[in-house]
Amino acid sequence: MRYELRPVRPDDVETLFTLHRDAMRDYVESAYGPWDDAVQRGFLHRWLDGDSDPLIIEVDGEVVGVLDYVNHDDSHDDSVYIGRIEIDPTMQGRGLGTAVLSDVIADADRSGEDVTLEVIDVNPARRLYERLGFLETATVGRKVHLRRPASRQDLEPPGSR
Questions:
Q1: What is the pLDDT of residue 160?
Q2: For 126-148, what is each residue's pLDDT tens digit?
Q3: Which residues make Cβ contacts (< 8 Å) with residue 58, sequence separation at least 6?
Q4: CA 4 to CA 60: how far, in whole Å?
Q5: Most exposed: 78, 103, 146, 158, by fewest CB within 10 Å?
């Protein structure tokens, strides 16, 4: 699926909150209890005010998701760390998440870097991550930590010598 990425602008905040609520509310409630708009808005503002540079995902000029990832993040073992990927539920199951993640993975593979992320244990996106080669490395509370080892095409296959 074709998509465009662009930086988040100040006028995107309400759209990002609606996207977050629509994409994550069921999983947050299942894992942590009742959804609280004020708490979730606080999380959103702290995230946007932090050191990240999130990107809006657009299809045909419409905001349909958000992606936040960091290359060479020392706090995440020098891997490419995907801190957030949220896709509008109306766009889920159409290959958008696969396309976006595949592009991040391809860039990481070119650099020889693993890709890491976390997912709430009840979020079915975990199946997508596993299909893309992510492996569970730990569970902390309700968050499952996953790692996709870099594809090392520059190395000779075992037994080739």
A1: 42
A2: 999 999 999 999 999 999 999 99
A3: 3, 4, 5, 6, 64
A4: 8
A5: 158
In angstroms, the CA 81 to CA 117 distance is 6
In this prediction the pTM is 0.88
- Provide the sign of the torsion angle of the four alpha carbons 125, 91, 28, 10, taken in this order: positive
CA 103 to chain centre: 12
Among 24, 1, 25, residue whose Cα is nearest residue 85: 24
Pairing status of strand 115-120 against strand 135-140: unpaired
| H/E segment holding residue 99 | helix 96-111
Helix (H, G, I), strand (E, B), or coil: what is residue 157? coil
The token pair that represents 158 in the structure block: 């075992």
Q: CA neighbours within 13 Å on the CB side: how many for 88? A: 15
Q: How many residues can be counted in the chain?
A: 161
